[in-house]
Amino acid sequence: SDSLDTFREAFHLRQREATLARKSDSTTAQEAELKMAKIRHNIGCVNFELGKLDDAKKSYMEAIDQQKKAFGTWSTPFMIMTDTTKPGFLTMASTMCNKGYIDLEQGKYNEALSTFHESLKIQRLLLEADNKLILGTLDNIGYAYCMKRDYDSALKAYEELCKLQQESYGDQSQKGWSQSIRKLIYCQTSLQQWEAAFTNLQSLEDYLNTRGKGKNLADDLRNTHELMGEVNYQIFKFPTLAESIAPAMGCGYCTSDDVELSAWVPKKPANGSKMSGHRMTYA
């Protein structure tokens, strides 16, 4: 495409600039490396829009490698000693997220988790706790763990996400909370945490009754009431001998036989970022 040709031409110009910069001071060389990484990042974005996921991922990984090279050894002690307020660090976090989005698209959940966790470390140092990029990254982490059926780890991500959204009073944050708590309830129910799930279902019901909007409100209320009834039954029923023995032996029993969760399975997040709001973040 024309965009790819433009970025490739720009990249070659930046390469020549970087070659000259390496002969001068280190600061100029670092800036040149980061400019090249930005162009690799944008090439990845164009390839993603064209549906070329492997090419996009390759560009993001090359950009991340170049960003790390520019900043030096990537480690926690390094972060403590380095001025992380520079825009390049946040760009690197954004590049990592874009690479993680492709991992999710390709069902490579372990790779996605590794990338998102690394990006989150940077974000926590640079951004407010309830920043949109942090919230989105936590949402992606929770989803990836759910797809791996690691509900304990997903639960931790969704608990933090719900807490941050609940502490923000904007309507958009509260709407986000109502979506996130559904995912939290799914994890709690999958883990047979009936009392906690019921408490959160009550909170969700209250939100839907007082602030809920949209064409799906009636369906959301019906699904909430139905799951409340099923979870309430689990709380008060007398367990059979088999159900009592199974958890003690570490195997548990399958809740799907008793509780219908198809309407509660988390959907893949609509990924965006603070920097652009689009599916892919352009540097």
Would you mind describing this structure in some detail?
The chain is mainly alpha-helical. The protein is 72% helix and 0% strand. It has twelve helices and no strands. Helix 2 (26-49) packs parallel to helix 5, helix 6 (109-126) packs antiparallel against helix 7 (132-147) and helix 8 runs antiparallel to helix 9. The longest helix is centred in the N-terminal third of the chain and has 24 residues, at 26-49. It is elongated and about 75 Å long.
Write a brief caption for the model.
With 283 residues, the chain is mainly alpha-helical.
Radius of gyration, Cα only, in angstroms? 23 Å
Describe the global form: elongated
Given helix and strand content, the structural type is mainly alpha
- Strand-residue proportion: under 5%
Q: Report the helical percentage.
A: over 70%
What characterizes the major β-sheet?
none
Number of helices: 12
Q: Span between N and C termini? A: 19 Å
Number of strands: 0
Q: What is the residue-averaged pLDDT?
A: 81
* SSE topology string: HHHHHHHHHHHH
Low-confidence spans:
74-81, 249-256, 272-279
Architecture blueprint of SSEs:
Elements: H1 2-21, H2 26-49, H3 53-71, H4 76-81, H5 87-105, H6 109-126, H7 132-147, H8 151-166, H9 171-190, H10 194-211, H11 217-236, H12 241-248
Helix pairs in contact: 1-2, 2-3, 2-5, 3-5, 5-6, 5-7, 6-7, 7-8, 8-9, 9-10, 10-11
